[in-house]
Amino acid sequence: MPVDTSGVTPRARALSAAIRSIRERSGVSGRELSKRLGLSHGTVSHWETGRRVPTPEDVASLLTAAGITGDEKQRVVELARHASEPNWLTVGMPGIPQQLAGAVECERAASSIAEWAPMGLPGLLQTADYARTISKASGLATADVEQRVMLRIARREVLTRRDPVRFLALIGEDALRDRIGEPEVMEEQLRYLLDLGLHDNVTVQVVQPRIGWHPGLAGPFVLYDFPDAPSVVHFEHFSSGAFVPDADDVQAYQCAVDNIRRVALSPAQTTERITEILKELRHEA
After folding, report:
1. Which residues form a coiled coil (predicted)?
2. Which of 68-77, 190-199, 245-254, 274-283 has the lowest mean pLDDT?
């Protein structure tokens, strides 16, 4: 039987996303799937929302009922087998889809997000062409590139929905000056950042280079705060990443956010700096 969870782990959020996606692809309603599995009404719905975590056996039965076999079935069952484990380390490209699903679910459930991005722009703030340029440069197939871009755009909905997430973006200035794609791509991206800075729930602050030591020099991270679960820190690298909900680690990164903000330009100064960089880019073009 499913069990209640006192704290929803990132892995459990990824599992709920996988179940929801599989059920939607099968074309069967949650009510009908619960009936086929001999479970009470609404059980599958609770699995999809993360209110309850199914056992690996329940997941295997659901996948069989939905016609899922092979590697995908094995991957999702394995996800269920470790859903309650708090820390989640993924290594190698095969783990990235699960990790991405975990990040998407964290974004949807979070009440606030703080991201330190020293070398590239946060995914939630990227334009379609900026994201497309990065995906192409990484060597993805054309179909995979467009799928990633569509997902990136869909993820931005958390910033504009009725009850939007509060997002603090701390961005290294080098990320704004780097040339990702044609000049038009960067121009559009910089203008988009200026527009986002006008939203009440979005705060953008730039951190200048060569200002001495600050905790952000240790590397990028994302801090998710939830209304119904403990906060989580996410570290993402090229082909691996980790979600860490340990209270001491979370507190350390909450302090890191405060310290980085102290050395960052204010939101007003950030607007001025982005405008200056945009003018320089136009002049160079």
Report:
1. none
2. 68-77
Q: In the listed set 65, 81, 97, which residue is the last one of a domain according to the structure?
A: 81
d(CA 173, CA 170): 10
| Degrees to nearest 5, angle at CA 118 with 218 and 96 | 85
Element (H, E) at 148: helix 142-155
CATH code for the domain in which residue 131 is found: 3.30.870.10
What 3-state DSSP class applies to 240? strand
What distance, in Å, lies between the first and last C-alpha atoms of the chain? 62
Enclosing domain of residue 182: 88-284
At residue 46, does pLDDT exceed 90?
Answer: no
Residues 135 and 18 in one domain: no
Does 180 share its domain with 68?
no
Sequence letter at residue 143: A
Angstrom distance (rounded) from CA 269 to CA 71: 50
Domain count, the chain: 2
Q: Is residue 107 within 8 Å of 158, Cβ to Cβ?
A: yes
| Same structural domain, 112 and 62 | no
Find how far residue 168's CA is from the centre of its chain.
14
Contact 278, 192 (CB under 8 A): no
Q: Which residues, 6+ apart, have CB-to-CB distance to 179 below 8 Å?
A: 186
Cβ atoms of 64 and 23 within 8 Å: the answer is no
**The domain boundary residue, chosen from 49, 81, 113:** 81
- Taking CA atoms, 240 is separated from 48, 96, 150, 167, in Å, by 26, 7, 22, 24
Identity at 63, one-letter amino acid code: L
Say if residue 96 is in the same domain as residue 228: yes
pTM of the model: 0.73
- CB neighbours of 103 closer than 8 A, spacing ≥ 6? 10, 222, 234, 236
Q: What are the backbone angles phi and psi of residue 112, rounded to the nearest 5°?
A: -150, 150
